[in-house]
Amino acid sequence: MSSSAQADPYARAAAKFALSCKLASIEALIDWDAQTNMPKGGSWARGEQRGALAEVMSDLTGTPEIGALLDEAQGYANRLGPAEQANLKEMRRLYAHRAAVPSALVVERARVSQALQATWLEARKNSDWAAFAPGFKKLMVIHKEVAAAKAAALGLAPYDAMMDEQDPGLTCAIIDPIFEDLAASLPGLLAEVRERQASWPAVIDFSGDFSMAKQEKLAQRLAVIVGHSPETSRIDTAPHPFSMPHSPGDVRFTTRYSEDKFRYSVTATLHEAGHSMYELNLPRAQAFSPAGFARGASAHESQSLMLEMMAGRSKEFLSFLAPLLHEYLGGDAACWSRKNVLNFFRRVDDDYIRVNADEISYPLHVILRYRLERALLSGDLAVDDIPGAWNEMFAKMFGRTPPDHARGCLQDIHWAAALFGYFPNYALGEALGAQLFERANADDPSILPALGQGDFKPYFAWVKPRIHEKASLKSFDDIVIAATGQRLSGAALKRHLKKRYLDEALD
Prior knowledge:
The chain has two domains: 5-155, no CATH class; 172-503, Neurolysin, domain 3, CATH 1.10.1370. The protein has 20 helices and two strands. It has helices at 8-36, 43-61, 64-74, 82-100, 103-126, 129-154, 158-166, 172-197, 212-226, 262-281, 296-311, 315-329, 338-346, 362-378, 386-398, 424-443, 447-451, 457-466, 476-484, 491-503; strands at residues 233-237, 251-255. The protein has a two-stranded parallel sheet with strand order 1-2. The longest helix has 29 residues, at 8-36.
């Protein structure tokens, strides 16, 4: 940055936003604690703490004085370097969001959300929508106020305005054609794959020690194989696996363990390790600045799903994984053969849970939530009607109905956590992950053979400079086009799924 007096408005604004970013990282840390270690009795106090942080961040970066300072800095933008110009653009975007919503409403949302997360844990355990609904109604009232305020300030439709904070550059007009295409094509593909897999040999039952202690050691090993180190990362457990953002050099993520389904810990660990590698590889020079954040939720999800699904379920990596599973879990060697492990991980499932879904079903789970969210925000769907609407839409997409709300409308924490307008990124992330993985392998044919040896270095050598190190220094479109040669679409995902599930032999 220039040291001249003319650049001073930028420096003063950047300092305010840097402080706000540091507070956001503290908020992420106490949220991680709330989901991993906090006693149940701490929920009320944690809501107050999060509310206080939200209020201070809003006061730091959402006041008219900050707006005036950013306007002044904009007058000298041509004297700033590229990174500072990108940071100024991001500061202006974040200011627009924060200035649009009264700080009292931001604080109330944080308080209601924290309380609702505690309610959700019990409601999901008991499959009790009636227990969850009153708090969610209260939160939806707040969401509608927030969405209306943001829409007016940003000149966007309400749902687009909610998405813009988490996923700038993406709107319903961009998403809808992609989702309509996937919703029309994937059920047919799923039926074809089911027909093909009906002739496959049955999966040999797995034997071994599936205790949490054994699976935890396996998860730690998988994280190191991917590229993490105990010096910079930590793995814990949570009801809904997540990765903690905005903490350079200290990346924390959670996984889950089930003695009945060891696959859950493998896929969840790879997924969250992908998120955390993105955070770990963000440019340190831009740490705690808006331009230093990951480029939105869909970019972030592309990194978790690209690693978990595209790389982690590749034939090559599963060949490496099979003996590793035997090493850590023991049991009969025959069940851990390459062919049996491949047969197991490639099976499309009849599950009801999004995070357990096969690659083909996964986007359909997300599209369902996206459509319900839009109806909720527009007022076309009432909170009390969600269970019925969920089950009806699920039956149309999958041909079966969830047996209870825990495996239906209560399965995800996101609504309780006030992540509204967030769900689309999961399907968009899978589409982008496939687009990136296709281009990566075209650019570097050594990536897949290396995965067969448990070597992720060529993989990250391609991904890191194109996605991780770009942070928010460029727009979503610019990053995607530079990396893959085209804008985001569902085409690469459809090619990937067809090749993997219809063309590849089970051998």
